[in-house]
Amino acid sequence: MQIQQAILHRIEKEKNTSGTGSAIPVTRTSQLPIDGRLEKMTEEILKIYGKSTNGYGTFNANQTLYQFPVKLKDYVLQSTDFIQFTIDTTDLISLKMAGEAFSTGGYVLILRYTNLGQDWLMVAMLKLKHGTGINEQTMDLSDTLSFDIDHLHEAARVDLAKWQSNTQPYLSFVKKRQTTSEVSKYFREALGCTEYTDSKHQTIQIKKAFEDYCEANSWSSEKKRTGRQQFYEHCDAKDKSGEPVNLAALSAILDDQNPTSFSEFVRDNDYQVNDTFKPDRATFSKLNRISKSFGSVKVSFEVQDIDNGKVAYDPDNRCLVIRDLPSELIDEINKHKSSDATTTA
Fold first, then answer.
1. C-alpha triplet 268, 273, 279: angle, nearest 5°
2. Key word Glycosyltransferase present in the record (predicted)?
3. Most buried among 39, 130, 174, 335, using CB within 10 Å?
């Protein structure tokens, strides 16, 4: 991870206040020095962000109402310098914060960094927490202030290359679990975060995550088969009822001994899956059914048919063996086989 640019601004706002003038930006005019302290803090933030991310999406297309993508484009194209871009962004956040009475001020951290060849921009709201420190010379205790990184409720990150090529989803963000009043919503509104709802993409991602999870945990073939069946049945039931799949609920079903293990695996490895998503039937059906076309031949059968021996693969002859064919099918095959033999004679 290599930090390119970083800055901190402050927004002053008391809880239970709202309206014009309630959120006041206090901005700095120079970038943060890129030193060991910044690098350590950034690594901690990115670690927590990876575990907290639960929303993926794009910027709202209405650039009149949502100015952040416009400001970002000007910055990336170098029409605006980094400091002015971050001041403009802080202003956008403070305007939205002023409309949320229960929101409180904090520090706006804006980072541009590269990691594994990818170019990223992150915006995060950091709060302060009180603590107790010690003077190493006198060994007297003293009050301290530090950033409360463990509770990262307002943060978003943009994959700049994917954004510029409009490869979706290029945006990820932290979204608090649904409550009657979500205090941090103003932050996503300020940046124009729009949740990505591509059913197929998210179902492909969660299916891949499950296969990787089985591999990482060395699941036996039998356990994998059971897990795939549970996965399919849950998605099938949700699809038929018109309800979304909840990642936390699916995680508990797949591994009831470690109910949060799968969902944590998804977050730790950055699979692009929202907390809830609409299952794509064509994708999740592959957990339960194998279908393939080659030439003029089409085959389709349930995975269960392999388990019960109705369908088998002969590796020596690269043949598919299907047992217990119905009499009608056998008669039809023989009829055409006899017809071919007569014609050849």
1. 140
2. no
3. 174
Beta-carbon contacts of residue 217 (< 8 Å; ≥ 6 apart):
none
Vertex 184 angle, CA 86 and 17, to 5°: 90
Contacts (Cβ under 8 Å, ≥6 apart) of 307: 225
Query: Whole-model pTM?
Result: 0.75
Residue 65 and residue 179 in contact, taking contact as beta carbons nearer than 8 Å: no
In the prediction, which pLDDT does 177 show?
Answer: 60
Domain locations in the chain as residue ranges: 2-195, 199-285, 288-344
Q: Give the angle 49-50-53 at the CA atoms, nearest 5°.
A: 75
- Alpha-carbon distances of 125 from 145, 148, 156, rounded to whole Å: 16, 10, 9
pLDDT digits (tens, 9 = 90+) for 110-143: 999 999 899 999 999 999 888 888 878 887 887 7
b/e sequence 73-90, b meaning 16+ C-beta within 10 Å: bebbeeebebbebbbbbb
pLDDT tens-digit readout, 269-323: 889 898 889 999 989 888 877 777 788 888 777 777 677 778 888 888 888 888 8
First to last CA, the chain: 74
Q: CA-CA distance, 193 to 69, in Å (whole number)?
A: 10
Among 217, 234, 227, which Cα is nearest to 276's? 234
